């Protein structure tokens, strides 16, 4: 995929801790057409606003730089979730956890205004398996993904989603099937990535036959969640557990050190990488979540 330059058309604080930036225009239409969901790779600009990529610094230049193969740019690449898109309107929204200025992406979001630009380097990722019961766990960074998952589960889906947030002001209204309960876990102001609220909730959760477990949060919690689920007999093909960030490391550092603590054998049947939707065929275990992301 050629690098794309997205332009913000709205910036909304959906809670005091989460900012939604919506982009629109031709580059968004081009991205949606690639079908690369649910994750999106952003290339953040340098401090002087330039990207160091010809077609992002001058969209009319016609260059096609293979960003993902250029190590010197990786320091500025971040992975986020496409919270929503609308193919008819050519809009796409990303929800940013506001965790201060230490992070390139968080700092960009804090300064984002209508007209701000963001480089896009690609996308893709796995989604979630079809199951009799769902066990979902995540912190605020996973809230956009959990929002998508819940909106797109079958209407008769059953399960529980545990969402860890800094405090009650970070709760959001989530559209979900009636049979899926959302349980908010508050850190009561404690720093993100400290504590074991999600680990404890998952450990205490009664596992139902046919459960599919999805978890994403800070590295320490996802490692403990995976270990606990494996101990309790959940097979790797029935889980997808990914570290979304790691305390003390930038995303690039975390990816280099331990590939987001991924276990590539998890949910390795019939998965759909790069967002190609194989989810509607009979007999597949994949939900076509990406292709059915809700419209605005
Ligand atoms: C598949 C995937 C999807 C994701 N989707 C989203 C999403 O939709 N929205 C979202 O906000 N995040 C999402 N994340 C997490 C996000 O990529 C990381 O939080 C990323 O590190 C943020 O980049 P940054 O430039 O702000 O901080 P970085 O430069 O990467 O990190 C700088 C410092 O901030 C710390 N840090 C990073 N994230 C947080 C945080 N949330 N709270 C406190 N400290 C932090 C790091 O440990 C480091 O010390 C996703 C991650 C993955 C892998």
Beta-strand residue fraction: 25-35%
The CATH topology label of the largest domain is Rossmann fold
Cα(first) to Cα(last) distance is 25 Å
Helical run tally: 8
* Main sheet overview: 7 strands, antiparallel
CATH architecture classification of the largest domain: 3-Layer(aba) Sandwich
Shape: globular
Radius of gyration: 18 Å
Kindly state the percentage of residues in helix: 10-25%
CATH class of the largest domain: Alpha Beta
What is the average of the pLDDT values?
Answer: 89
What can you tell me about this protein's structure?
The chain is α/β, with parallel strands linked by helices. The protein has two domains: 4-124, Translation factors (Elongation Factor Tu (Ef-tu), domain 3), CATH 2.40.30.10; 133-291, Rossmann fold (3-Layer(aba) Sandwich). The chain has helices at residues 26-34, 54-57, 71-74, 104-111, 143-152, 197-204, 219-231, 251-258, and strands at residues 4-15, 18-24, 39-43, 77-81, 84-86, 91-97, 117-124, 133-138, 159-165, 180-186, 211-218, 239-245. The two termini are 25 Å apart. It binds flavin-adenine dinucleotide. Flavin-adenine dinucleotide (FAD) is lined by residues 39, 78-81, 95-97, 99, 102-106, 125, 141, 144, 192, 244-251, 260.
List keywords for this structure.
2 domains; five-stranded parallel sheet; binds flavin-adenine dinucleotide; 296 residues; Elongation Factor Tu (Ef-tu), domain 3; alpha/beta
